[in-house]
Amino acid sequence: MRGAAGWAVRATAAVLTAVALAHTLWHGLAEPGAALAFGTLVAVGELARADGPDTPGEQPAPLGSAGALAYALFGQNAGHPTHHGALETVAVVVAAALAGIVPHVARGRGPALDHLARRVLTVAFAAACFRPLHHPGGLGERFGQGPYLVVLLLLLLVLTALCDAVLAATLARARTGSAYGPLLRDGMHAQLGIGSAVCATGVVMALGTAVAGLWAVPVLGVPLLLTQLSCHRITAIRTTCRETVTSLARATEIAGYTRPGHSRRVAALSCAVGRELGLSERDLTVLEYAALMHDIGQLSLVDPVPGGATAELPAAEARRIAGLGGEVARQAGVPAEVAVVVERQADPYREQPPLARIVRAVNAYDDLAGGGRHPGGALAALEQLRLGTGKEYQPEVVECLARVLARGGRGRVVPVPPG
Q1: Is pTM beyond 0.85 here?
Q2: Model confidence over 298-312: pLDDT tens digits?
């Protein structure tokens, strides 16, 4: 069902794009100058977009999104009414976005098609709602160009932001299988951040061009472009942090303390369980980092644990190793929540924070099932976890783990840095 919803969104966007391009090619552009100005802004925004996969709820190309929204709300040009329709708006935005992503595609880092589908449907929604304001006999003549129009624009922005969040959550659920509620919540939360800047820039740009003409487009687009470049630096910092955590996780494997791939398997399966439980994107990131670093405390041991299987150690020794791992995590500069999960992973589940319960159960499963350590195989290892739900493992986590394993899911793929 969730896959059908994703395909329905993509198919709708594709059909709308084809109709818009055919309509515009047949009838031509109503205002070529305006189409060129806003199209250039959208193309520049896409050219300056962040590389990599799109994250649900986030705006990888805020300048392009703001330019597309401004064109959808473009009602007057220096006091003269405009005449382009919703289909022409979609055609110009799609053509400009495709032109802007060509360099990314050439480098093998093109955006996902879901990004373009969201852009098409969101712009079409905003334009279809706004154009009646300027049609003869429409709402524009009733409310004029005063404060009432601003109120209507703000209401339209709220509806457009909600539309974008719903589309992002629907596509993300089709892609990852995560629960819809947390994805929608993350999308709405993102709209309060960079999304609000995109909406504000779009409406100010539309109102500015109504008075000053098309010269307002590049002037008002510069602040958001600088913000977008700053966001790129933040993304680079996050990438460096992820690579550092992954490298630390590999240190236990290189030193022979854990089996090859153990930390990555635990991280991937923990994230799959976290999504099954409806965790937010932020919690999933903390969970992934903690799962990657959960065995880092073993580096302090003189004699390695056989096979790195901490689940089979006495409780006191497992807690001591977890505490040492928490100290290493703090010194590595990872978020404090990650260190807490690492150092609390060996506690009985009733004393643990929720994320540590996931790491504890998944780590125990991989320790018991991996390497043929459990005579009954993976199914018997899972049954042993069920027997420990009275004290050691949270029952809800174990059942989510069972559902994920039944589907063959392993969660997000954790990147391995070169070398």
Answers
A1: no
A2: 877 767 776 666 766
